[in-house]
Amino acid sequence: MKSLPVFLMGCGGVGRQLLQHIVSCRSLHAKQGVHLRVVGVCDSKSLVVVADVLTAELDDSFLLEVCRVKSNGSSLQTLANSSVCQVFSGPEVIRKVIDIGLLGKSTGLAFVDCSASAETIGVLNQVVDFGCCVVLANKKPLTVQMEDYDKLVSQPRRLRHESTVGAGLPVIASLNRIISSGDPVYRIIGSLSGTLGYVMSEVEDGKPFSQVVNAAKSLGYTEPDPRDDLGGMDVARKALILARLLGRSLNLDNMKIESLYPEEMGPDVMPLEDFLVNGLPLLDQKIEDGIKQASANGNVLRYVCLIDDARCEVGIQEVPKDSALGRLRGSDNVVELYSRCYEKQPLVIQGAGAGNDTTAAGVLADILDIQDLFP
Amino acid sequence: MKSLPVFLMGCGGVGRQLLQHIVSCRSLHAKQGVHLRVVGVCDSKSLVVVADVLTAELDDSFLLEVCRVKSNGSSLQTLANSSVCQVFSGPEVIRKVIDIGLLGKSTGLAFVDCSASAETIGVLNQVVDFGCCVVLANKKPLTVQMEDYDKLVSQPRRLRHESTVGAGLPVIASLNRIISSGDPVYRIIGSLSGTLGYVMSEVEDGKPFSQVVNAAKSLGYTEPDPRDDLGGMDVARKALILARLLGRSLNLDNMKIESLYPEEMGPDVMPLEDFLVNGLPLLDQKIEDGIKQASANGNVLRYVCLIDDARCEVGIQEVPKDSALGRLRGSDNVVELYSRCYEKQPLVIQGAGAGNDTTAAGVLADILDIQDLFP
């Protein structure tokens, strides 16, 4: 049985779901000859780690206890009385995390970032140097400035990040296969926000934009402040991740990112309630006009990421009504990829692109996929 | 630079395209730190191999010469005068191939089967025992009786076969990810024959079945004898490969395989010309009736592979008009996969599922994907 040491940063919904998946897959992974040995877990404030990281592990009942504690909103400190682990807090955390990263040199380590923090890149770049494998659900380490990015991807076989684009949808794995087979990618166009996909397909049916956004918020499809979705930054990060995989040297601030609300309705200027009640309706007409114009061309509007030789941008585009993108309904993600092998008809990957379950499943598949790098 | 020894069985269209891809990807792979060292190539009659398999390689100009020789319909024997290699023929070939397989024990070896032969399973099972990695475009080694299959897959990490289903489409890679993440697959339904996909979407438009099949044959979309497509055996092999990946213990002869022509029109009974002119038109009415019936239910007919808890079968099924399968036009393949993560809306993978270029690209991506298993 091969033992894969795993360290997890981030105990939000995705991180907790990952721990639960790991526990529930024990017999499956045993059949595959692999055991995931979780040596530690941290959030932004505290760290729980086994006393002997070289041999011990947090057992399954403890991992489920971590999930319970965190989903109750309690601190990992609560677990300090357990005899199976040590708990650290405050400035000690980072130092101790780096210590754990040294496992990369001896037994190998899957260093998993399920946080949403922009601050993990420093730690990640250090543990990459130690020889750790890094698995990311967190997009932010991949959308830092190029210099830090280049360090992070310096050992590309040791880095996996399927769940940073389209959650568990096999977008990154498929793109990496196409790249390594020498098939040149001409164009990627996709709807990579379930929220914006839902909004754009609903307004297509004639409903006012303001009404659709408010309904989406009520259904829990949007962030608490829908401007976090409508601004396009989340989609832009995904586009940047794809473009950089294709070898493009780009930063977020070079990209054209279309926001669906104007600056004067931004979170710093207009309170949320005001935006929802008074701001949004002012945007209805422009969207309606765009839909009519597109329809006259046999097209529909989608909020897409678009990457080709000339462009890496996100925003509203007209797409053919009868394409995979054009036929998209609801909150599924879809990616169309054009290359020499998929020249006239694209390679299409479509499905749920959000949710803790599928995101954590993508992370887990990544961890299993690097098993051959472990001694 | 990591050196990956590669041995190729089969110099048909896919094998030759693979050699060309390997040559044209030299600088790309060098950037990735990998060099594919082709130590030998064989077809069913002859074997070309470097004198020292531990260190030497067939150089790029020689590989392209192999492609030229084989696409001219000449024998690999033609290359016997070259000083860079040894050529073997007849009964010596198998013995020598096994010798090459011994590389698996020392340097590792990617043993690639791009033939269409049912006879390679014996050799493959021997080299698997030596520790070789096996990469297949050939479906037949995966559709043998379970006992031989179980031997072949005994080291699952050392076996890749993306191009056996949907050519280079990332179907197997995606399914393997889903399996290893513990996401239970409830149902796979797909159109895995470009020919039958084309035929079923054309007859949907009201054209007679006989006319569509004859047109497809003229366009080169079918095998020389279209009954090789219409019989469903090729789709059945793909379905069996997927079902066995899901852990089902099944053989081809347990499967329900619907043929689109009756036994009395089979190749042993009716000459091809007779089938095309007189046989096919007798089948038009049944297909037309089926389409009308489906249409009354809001459905269309597709020739699908269908795998769920109860079934692993191939044949004509009614599918919803507005599903990915129902919207399929032309010769693209499409796979819909339902699992816990993709429960209401399936994970959909769609695109060109045939052609030497994309099939060989899938094989090459598989070879690159096993690089971590090499010393």
TrEMBL record, chains A, B:
<keyword id="KW-0028">Amino-acid biosynthesis</keyword>
<keyword id="KW-0486">Methionine biosynthesis</keyword>
<keyword id="KW-0560">Oxidoreductase</keyword>
<comment type="pathway">
    <text>Amino-acid biosynthesis; L-threonine biosynthesis; L-threonine from L-aspartate: step 3/5.</text>
</comment>
<dbReference type="InterPro" id="IPR011147">
    <property type="entry name" value="Bifunc_Aspkin/hSer_DH"/>
</dbReference>
<dbReference type="Pfam" id="PF00742">
    <property type="entry name" value="Homoserine_dh"/>
</dbReference>
<feature type="domain" description="Homoserine dehydrogenase catalytic">
    <location>
        <begin position="170"/>
        <end position="368"/>
    </location>
</feature>
<dbReference type="InterPro" id="IPR001342">
    <property type="entry name" value="HDH_cat"/>
</dbReference>
<comment type="similarity">
    <text>Belongs to the homoserine dehydrogenase family.</text>
</comment>
<keyword id="KW-0791">Threonine biosynthesis</keyword>
<protein>
    <recommendedName>
        <fullName>Homoserine dehydrogenase</fullName>
        <ecNumber>1.1.1.3</ecNumber>
    </recommendedName>
</protein>
<keyword id="KW-0521">NADP</keyword>
<dbReference type="InterPro" id="IPR022697">
    <property type="entry name" value="HDH_short"/>
</dbReference>
<dbReference type="InterPro" id="IPR019811">
    <property type="entry name" value="HDH_CS"/>
</dbReference>
<comment type="pathway">
    <text>Amino-acid biosynthesis; L-methionine biosynthesis via de novo pathway; L-homoserine from L-aspartate: step 3/3.</text>
</comment>
<dbReference type="InterPro" id="IPR036291">
    <property type="entry name" value="NAD(P)-bd_dom_sf"/>
</dbReference>
